[in-house]
Design goal:
alpha/beta, Arc Repressor Mutant, subunit A, D-Maltodextrin-Binding Protein, domain 2, five-stranded mixed beta sheet, four-stranded antiparallel beta sheet, 10 helices, 13 strands
Length: 298
Amino acid sequence: MIMRPDLDAINALDAVVRHGGFARAAAALNRVQSAVSYQVEKLEAQLGVALLDRSGYRVRLTPEGEALLAEGRRLLGQADRMASMARQFAGGWEPRLTMILDGILPLETTLRALRTLAEEKVPTRIQLKVEYLSGVQSRFEKDGADIMVVKDYEGRPDLEAHPLREVECVLCVSRRHPLADRPRVTPRDLHEHVELSVQDSSGRGDDEHMFGGDRVFYLDGFIAKKQALRMGLGFGWMPRYLVNRELHAGTLREVRYAGGSRYRFTPLLVHRATAPLGRTGRRLAELLVGGPLADHGA
C-alpha cells in the first residue's frame, strides 16, 4: 500500500541528489549518514518504488526517482511558503483585507500602493471593491470591510478618518453640445438639457452637486460618463484628472456656469477605531496617506 510521503524524507532525498552522495548530504543536514540513508529508504518504502540507483560508484536517481523528486521539490517549496506565511501572520500581517474605493477617486493611486505591497511580498489576500457616493459607506458596513477611501461619509465615534490629496471636479460638455459656447450658463439653462450622473449604488439619493433638473441619465461609472459626455448626451461633473486631456484637446469644454464650474474636495481614508488595522492595513493606509497615520478622529 502506497503511503503519503514524509517531507523530511523528501528533503533527505533532495540533499543526497544535490550534494552527490549520502555522506555529503548528512554533513549538509547536520545528521549522521545512517539517519539520511534510513529516511531515503523509508521514502522508497512509502512510495513503493526505487528512487535511487545504488549499483554504480555514485548513487543516481532512477527515472521514477527523477519524476517523483521533481514533484517532491514542489511540495518542499509549498511547505516553505506555508511556514513563511505562518510566521508573517504570527507577526501581525492579516490573512485578508477588504477595501472599498469611491469610483470618483484615481484608481491608479490605489493600484500603485497595492503594487508596493506585492513587491514587499505581503502575504495578505486583498480585495478591492469600487462603489459610488453613499454606496461606499453602505458597502463598507455591509461587508465589514477594513478600509474605505471616500469622497464623503457619515462620521461616527467608532470611525477614524485621515485626509488624502485634494481632488478637483469640473462641469463639462462636448464641444458639440449647445451649452459649450454659451458665455454664461444659468440653472435654467442647465434644466433644459440632460444631466449625466453616476448611480448611487446604495439607492439613498443623488449627489449633492446635482442641479435638480427633470432629465437625468445615470451611468455605472465615470468612464461611461466621460464617453457619454464626449458623445454630447448631456452635461455633468467629472474629476479633472480624468478629463484633462479632453479639455486640453477641446473635445470637452468647461461649462461657464454662473454658480461656478469647479469645486474641490478632500477625500478621506476611513477605518474602524474600535478594530485597529493590522500590519497590512496600516502599511496600505500609510502608502495612500503619504506617511505614518495620525489620529484625526472620526
